[in-house]
Design brief:
Blueprint lengths: L1 E7 L14 E7 L8 E10 L4 H4 L19 E11 L9 E8 L3 E5 L4 E3 L17 H14 L8 E5 L4 H13 L3 E6 L2 H10 L4 E4 L5 H8 L4 E6 L3 H9 L1 E9 L18 H9 L3 E4 L9 H13 L7 E5 L4 H9 L6 E5 L3
Parallel strand pairs: 8-9, 8-11, 9-10, 11-12, 12-13, 14-15
Antiparallel strand pairs: 1-2, 3-4, 3-6, 3-15, 4-5, 5-7
Helix pairs in contact: 2-3, 2-8
Length: 347
Amino acid sequence: MQVQRVVLNSRPGRNGEPVPENFRLEGMTLSPDLTDGDVLVRTVYLSVDPYMRCRMNEDTGAEYLTPWQLSECVDGGGVGVVETSRCSSCSEGDVVTLFNWPWQTHAVMKGSGLQKVDPRLVDGHLSYFLGAVGITGLTALLGVREKGHVTKGANQTMVVSGAAGACGSLAGQIGRLDGCARVVGICGSDEKSKALVEDLGFSASINYRHEDISARLKESCPDGVDVYFDNVGGAVSDAVIEQMNIGGHVILCGQISQYNKDVPYPPPLSEKTQEILRCKDITRERFMVLSYMSKAEAAVCELSHWVKSAQIKVLETVVTGIENMGVAFCSMMKGGNIGKQIVKISE
């Protein structure tokens, strides 16, 4: 069987932005002969995510992430359908997902490593298993629950940076559902700002590219900020932390503004910001969703219920074709997506 795959062609400079040419499309032949325990899967959707920028470096800077190797197949979140099986736990037609799915149109994998999922959980929207009802949704939900300390009736204000991205767009909605009185999103375009307020129910949104973040935060968060879901780091986060209340909580989910720089993760804070955290007794803890997987099953059911009942609205930016993986990844890193960036590989 002739299949196509994407390999890492080159690495960006340590402080460089990725470009589509860092990836290369190749043809390869898959043997139709499966050994015991193997399954042949057809890839339906692949995910591109900010953390993958770290995997482009020789040293990812995170002990839980392995680097992609030059001229080897790239991998990430994927969902597909079993076409042939020699594994007792997988049958033809099963929908399966994996965190380290190869960027190939078809692949042979060990069935025991795949997670079987029920399309009814997402009303047939299989891409949601890579987003709202997958690892992205779990990151948003468990991040808010484990590190946000949101209390119903406490009149809390939550701010979300990277609010129109895959995780931020869900985190803000979850904060509202869990009881925040006010949820304010920070994003990078007027189109995104409009989507946050009109489609997702955010109380207000701030376009950091064209608006004075500090002034708009004062206006949008008159009682200060209690919970900050941080997806970006850098100057945006410094501005939010400056307006946080005593005893507030920063959910340190991601630092996309720093991923093209040669700095450790999490990146160091300025002395001024560190002093604010100390003086106001603000918690700022790195959130690792993989540390909370014992709660994943119940969380997925809750996310599924919210999505199916339209209490959570899912935004996606979908590109078609495995040849566009690199383009989709680089666009996402520059904020070209609204919601989850997905690449559709087959029907």
